[in-house]
From TrEMBL:
UniProt cross-references to NCBIfam families, sorted A to Z: PRK06292.2-1
Binding of NAD(+), residues: 184-191, 207, 274
This protein's record includes keyword NAD: yes
Cysteine-cysteine disulfides: 45-50
Cofactor note: Binds 1 FAD per subunit.
Superkingdom field: Bacteria
Residue ranges occupied by any Pyridine nucleotide-disulphide oxidoreductase dimerisation domain in the UniProt entry: 350-458
Protein name as it appears in the record: Dihydrolipoamide dehydrogenase
Start and end residues of each FAD/NAD(P)-binding domain: 9-327
UniProt similarity note: Belongs to the class-I pyridine nucleotide-disulfide oxidoreductase family.
Lineage per the UniProt record: Bacteria, Pseudomonadati, Nitrospirota, Nitrospiria, Nitrospirales
Length: 463
């Protein structure tokens, strides 16, 4: 029988949904162990997601901006050495892994073990690693096992790469393909399409639904799609039939509606059809509840088993890194309070950005959701065509749309399409969380010449 190690907190996973709580509780004097299959402190965001993909995306954004500036004297079509882009991406990942290791070394009561964790009972976890099985008995458990890539099942799908092959440390893809076909029009597929097109790749994107970015606000998506580079070929309502290997790469056969089958040829193919929560083995066997979007947890991050919490992608509430961090801290605060729900996650104030070129972002209530729920609202609008920074950058499409409660003019939410959207949405999210009004926003002197001036100007259309 293996030795059973007694701990106060055990986290299944060591990413953003785990380590904020682990650090907080370890520094409070609790014995904490994290287990992760990767053997390092990081989630998928650093391993293969937002950090490495945005490292590539920023190079693409600079190249796209340089092309726009070519009429004013900058060369318009400088070649891209994609191996150097990958080296930059890898360097950022390695630097952050080293940073995390240093942070963990400063907390002696926190330990990380490499291996796959499974539940033996509601307090006991077995971790299978290179050294065999170790067992831990924990007073509290946070399930932070994240999500994984969904692979489609069409014939020949194994010929296609996925986001891990593009963005993991030392990735499979190290040369920029001359042409790329992407299956899936969600945020991962569309972001990848715009960044590689900006780097000089010919891109086709196949989406089975009637529009890309399904589930996101339709007006925001329509505005964004109107600003995407028309050189990106987007096929909507397309059913993938099969993929085949060719002398020059891959051939993807598809049908749009009831039309005859067609084929698109490319050097490389990518699938980006979504992610699924990773529920640890044994969780349902101990009475844990799992729903269609992952482990069922309330906004205190507590599951159906009171001393077990679920944070991050695995609970499906808000599958974003910054949401995972906040949920991890919510769980930690409630553990420190003896299991009482003294803190709760607020999904209505979480900013979300689609890092396409250009960007789109939103926070809080958006028009489609308001109409669906019958929530009345009034709108303030600011177009970037009027904005000094957008004019400076030659990015005058899009704008800021703010939704306010009638009468009180309390800010309910907003969408941004265009310049600096990812930066601006945080300011709007803080205003939503703080229950600020149009008058509050109108009175704040955002600095000039920055696109954030548009937040106050949108509010001033109503006051």
């Amino acid at each position: 029988m293996s030795t059973v190690h007694e701990v106060d907190l055990f986290t299944i996973g060591a990413g953003g949904a785990a380590y904020p709580a682990a650090f907080l509780l370890a520094r409070a004097g609790l014995r904490v162990v994290m287990a992760d299959t990767k053997g390092v402190m990081s989630g998928n965001c650093l391993a293969e997601g937002c950090v490495p993909s945005k490292s590539v995306r920023e190079v693409a954004a600079h190249r796209a901006r340089q092309r726009r500036f070519s009429p004013w004297g900058l060369p318009g079509e400088l070649p891209v050495d994609y191996r150097k882009v990958v080296a930059h991406k890898d360097r950022v990942q390695k630097d952050r892994y080293d940073q995390h290791a240093r942070e963990m070394a400063e907390v002696p009561s926190l330990r990380l073990v490499a291996g796959r964790a499974r539940f033996l009972d509601d307090h006991t976890i077995a971790v299978e690693g290179n050294r065999g099985e170790e067992r831990y008995r924990a007073r509290h458990i946070i399930v932070a096992s994240g999500s994984d890539i969904v692979r489609p099942s069409f014939p020949g799908a194994d010929l296609f790469l996925d986001s891990r092959d593009f963005f993991a440390l030392n990735p499979v893809l190290t040369e920029r393909p001359s042409s790329l076909v992407i299956v899936g029009g969600g945020y991962i597929g569309l972001e990848t399409a715009t960044m590689f097109h900006a780097l000089g790749t010919e891109v086709s994107l196949i989406e089975k639904g009637p529009r890309v970015l399904s589930g996101m606000d339709s007006a925001m998506v329509k505005e964004l799609c109107g600003l995407l580079d028309p050189g990106i070929r987007i096929l909507r309502g397309a059913t993938v039939l099969k993929a085949e290997k060719t002398d020059s790469g891959v051939a993807l056969h598809y049908r749009v509606g009831e039309s005859s089958p067609e084929v698109v040829h490319a050097e490389k193919g990518m699938v980006a059809v979504g992610r699924r929560p990773v529920v640890p083995e044994g969780f349902e066997g101990i009475g844990g509840e799992v729903g269609p979007h992952g482990i069922v947890a309330d906004l205190s991050c507590q599951t159906s088993i009171p001393h077990i919490y679920a944070a991050g992608d695995v609970n499906g509430i808000s599958p974003l890194f910054h949401s995972a961090v906040r949920q991890s801290l919510v769980a930690a605060h409630n553990i420190l309070a003896g299991g009482r729900a003294v803190d709760a996650f607020n999904p209505a104030a979480v900013p979300v950005t689609v890092f396409t070129l250009p960007e789109a972002a939103w926070v809080g209530l958006v028009p489609d959701e308001a109409h669906r729920r019958g929530i009345p609202f009034v709108t303030g609008r600011y177009d970037f065509a009027e904005d000094s920074r957008a004019q400076i950058l030659g990015e005058t499409g899009g704008g800021i749309t703010l939704l306010f409660e009638p009468g009180s003019l309390r800010l309910l939410g907003g969408t941004i399409v265009g310049v600096d959207a990812a930066s601006l949405v945080g300011e709007i999210g803080l205003a939503v969380a703080g229950r600020l009004t149009a008058r509050d926003l109108a009175h704040f002197p955002d600095q000039h010449p920055m696109a954030a001036e548009g937040v106050g100007k949108a509010a001033r259309t109503l006051v």
